[in-house]
UniProtKB/TrEMBL annotation:
Name used for this protein in its record: Nitrate/sulfonate/bicarbonate ABC transporter ATP-binding protein
Record domain ABC transporter: where: 4-229
Gene3D superfamilies in UniProt: P-loop containing nucleotide triphosphate hydrolases
GO molecular function term, any single one: ATP hydrolysis activity
Nucleotide-binding is among the record's keywords: yes
SMART domains on file: AAA
Amino acid sequence: MADIKIVNLHKEFGAGADKVVALDDVNLELGGHVFVSVVGASGCGKSTLLNILSGIETPTNGQVTITQEGGPARAGYVFQSARLLPWRTVMDNLLFVQEDRSEPTRQRCQRYLDMVQLGDKGKKFPGELSGGMQQRVGIARAFSTEPDVLFMDEPFSHLDAITARSLRAELHHMWQETGKTVVFVTHDVSEAVELSNRILVFAKGGRLAEDIPMDLPFPRESADPDVALAKAEVFRTFERIGALTVR
Ligand SMILES: Nc1ncnc2c1ncn2[C@@H]1O[C@H](COP(=O)(O)OP(=O)(O)OP(=O)(O)O)[C@@H](O)[C@H]1O
């Protein structure tokens, strides 16, 4: 579990007439065993926030600190596509990101492959797996390094609805089992409500418009009236901030 502190975070791209404010003075504290979803209309800075948290982008102003019990935290990433090395087997893709190749490490990787129900696919190459299976491998790989915090950028957006649904269930199970801090970017309000205990709604111009706690018990069924109400609250926020292009 990690502690994330974001202070006066500001990010601009371009200059002059081409200047775009992607994040505008964002202040946030996240930490512990939380699943935080970041939602908002296209272009409101969700991926930029995740890229800065992941160290892929640097902020224009402001600070981000990610710690674990006072020391530096270890982070794992899952992106829209699994980004596996096609010339390595599934198991070798997991081993590639480990600090060592010892037997206990191999067993740990196997455990995470089992968790995503691909325990028997370790010797396969990515090209022999479906897109959903490859994304499962990507999730197992991210968890297998046992990071303190996981950053996930729309990991299920390229998958069909049935595969996405089963992967959401697996992710939720792994999050509960492992006690990680997860920061999850999504366009999908239903997905955010189903998975999160906190939802950050971003508005155009990269402003954090609302920080909504989700205190409902898990598992959350969309037919449950409390889940429907929670979803409605997020949509009302979208309406209030003029973010009409939700998917
Ligand atoms: N590398 C870049 N160079 C220039 N502008 C960028 C760059 N990355 C992002 N932007 C701009 O910053 C703003 C925020 O982009 P970002 O990708 O963070 O939004 P988003 O909420 O993740 O969008 P989407 O939901 O469509 O993925 C947008 O206006 C985008 O065009």
